[in-house]
Design brief:
The chain folds into 2 domains: 9-108, Jelly Rolls; 112-166. It has helices at 112-134, 140-155, 159-166, and strands spanning 9-10, 14-15, 19-25, 30-36, 43-44, 49-62, 65-69, 74-77, 83-97, 107-108. Strands 1, 2, 3, 4, 6, 7, 8 and 9 form an 8-stranded antiparallel sheet that branches. Strands 5-10 form a two-stranded antiparallel ribbon. The protein has 169 residues and is α+β, with helices and mostly antiparallel strands. It is built from 3 helices and 10 strands; from the N terminus they run E-E-E-E-E-E-E-E-E-E-H-H-H.
Length: 169
């Protein structure tokens, strides 16, 4: 299909289990509209990608760094940098692949190191959210002991089970 200047080709939204993506492609650019409702698996894109967060909140984990996501925030992620998003409230964002006319390809990482990193980040996020919920009602020593026992329990869960746990907090 040949796209003329001023024309925009739109795709139907596709559901990926953690959210939906709709691609809008023009002659010199393409953008995706993404709705993230659950933790997305760790992945990367072969091109530099710009995210602009329209609504929602959560945490963006990029390599070994963590960023709070808030409405109006923007972030550029370099090509091939592993990342994933942990939503607290449903996130709506625009995604622009930089220097590419193609739909941003997503490569999900399944190697052991990436899986361990993702699992560790999911556990830390669950414990962070539980700490916020419980810190008013428990003495600090009791809370820390309970969180440590909760960490042991969480480490025995699969990544899918951890993603489900995050939905409750």
């Amino acid at each position: 299909m040949k796209i003329e200047i001023g024309e925009i080709e739109k795709t139907e939204p596709r559901n990926y289990g953690y959210g939906t993506i709709k691609i809008e492609r023009g002659l010199r650019t393409s953008q995706g509209r993404v709705k993230i409702e659950a933790p997305a698996p760790i992945h990367y894109h072969p091109v530099e990608t710009f995210y602009h967060f329209l609504s929602g909140s959560g945490r963006l984990i990029e390599d070994d760094r963590s960023f709070e996501i808030k409405k109006g925030m923007s972030r550029t992620i370099a090509a091939k940098v592993p990342h994933f998003i942990l939503p607290r409230k449903v996130i709506n964002a625009l995604i622009f692949p930089v220097l590419s006319l193609e739909e941003p390809e997503t490569i999900f990482l399944k190697d052991e190191e990436s899986t361990k990193k993702e699992k560790s980040r999911l556990i830390e996020e669950i414990l962070f959210r539980k700490r916020l919920l419980l810190k008013r009602g428990m003495a600090k020593e009791n809370l820390e002991k309970w969180l440590e026992s909760e960490r042991v329990r969480l480490e025995n869960l699969s990544i899918e089970e951890l993603r489900e746990q995050l939905k409750f907090y």
